[in-house]
Amino acid sequence: MENEIVNRVANSGLLTIDLEEYLPGKQDIAIFDLKDYLFKGLVLKEKDFREGLKNFDWEIFKDKYVAITCSADAIIPMWAYMLVAAYAQPFAKDVFSGTPEDMKKHLFLKNIDKIKIEEFTGQRVIIKGCGDNPIDSAAYAEITKLLRPVVKSIMYGEACSNVPIYKNK
After folding, report:
1. Phi, psi torsion values for 39, nearest 5 degrees
2. What is the pTM of this model?
């Protein structure tokens, strides 16, 4: 038994978080483009916009994620995004202002925010660094922000080769 191989990584007590597990799946993301409501492709007229929204078939967004965007180079007042969100919200799974890619990032961060951080209290945690899917830097910042108040330490990478990020002293 002298030459028994001991897996020190398995016995290290490190908890690994693989952010790929929190990536949103294939989502049905619909786009609401404000460009379609611009007068002469330049200006949003409130009265016409409100009328257009009132007559819009919001049922097409049933159980979908809605990305509110404007593909035209126009100045859109903030209340326009709010008004679209107010109409879409009763039908959509979620509403977000941005591109479909922005929506995916938003859903990813929401998934990370659902992590039960209590499970990591006083633990040494490693955030997996490599995988099959690219992970946005916002996700790494978000998980660090969530875990820092409760963990003993945070590392990035793999158990055999990691970068220390935070250590509670």
Report:
1. -75, 120
2. 0.81
